[in-house]
Amino acid sequence: MVKRKKRYIIVETSSNIPLDVFRKLVEKSYLELFGEFGLIQANVKVVKKIDSTFVLECSHGSVPKLILSLSSITRLEEGAIRFRVVKIAGTVKKVREIIVGE
């Protein structure tokens, strides 16, 4: 079995939203842009939430598509929302260093 490369994307939001709402927003946006097959291939997971910062995990080749789907989310039921990609990392260790350093 071939080991798939993963990437971790650290994302800050303009407002503090719950983890399950963020997960649904990301999945819905990715599904609308790239379809069900693309969503399965990307293997997108929300790993952790710290205040208004989220850590996403996805396959190596899907990073640009995930960033595009994040940028396409502009509105939430309460109003406008904005996402900012802080860093893309290849290991959990590097993610910890980045989060602690902020």
Produce a short descriptive summary.
With 102 residues, the chain is an alpha+beta fold.
Helix/strand/pairing class, anyone?
alpha+beta
Number of strands: 6
Query: Helical percent range?
Result: 40-55%
Please give the radius of gyration in angstroms.
13 Å
Can you say what the CATH homologous superfamily is?
Ribonuclease P, Pop5 subunit
Q: Unreliable runs, pLDDT <50, ≥5 residues?
A: none
CATH class: Alpha Beta
Q: Determine the oligomeric state from the structure.
A: single chain
Averaged pLDDT, please? 90
The CATH level-2 architecture is identified as 2-Layer Sandwich
**Structural domain tally:** 1
The secondary-structure element order is: EHEEHEEEH
Q: What is the 3D shape?
A: globular
Question: What is CATH's topology name?
Answer: Alpha-Beta Plaits
Write the topology of this structure.
Blueprint: E1 6-13, H1 19-42, E2 45-50, E3 53-59, H2 63-71, E4 75-76, E5 79-80, E6 83-89, H3 92-101
Antiparallel strand pairs: 1-3, 1-6, 2-3, 4-5
List keywords for this structure.
102 residues; alpha+beta; four-stranded antiparallel beta sheet; two-stranded antiparallel ribbon; 6 strands
Structure explained in plain terms:
This protein is α+β, with helices and mostly antiparallel strands and 102 residues long. It has a single domain (6-101), classed as Alpha-Beta Plaits. Helix content is 42%, strand content 31%. The chain has three helices and six strands, in the order βαββαβββα. It has helices at residues 19-42, 63-71, 92-101; strands at residues 6-13, 45-50, 53-59, 75-76, 79-80, 83-89. The strands form two sheets. It has a four-stranded antiparallel beta sheet, sandwiched between helices. β4 (75-76) and β5 (79-80) form a beta hairpin. α1 packs across α2 (63-71). It starts with 5 loop residues before the first strand and ends with a helix. The model has no long low-confidence stretch (mean pLDDT 90).
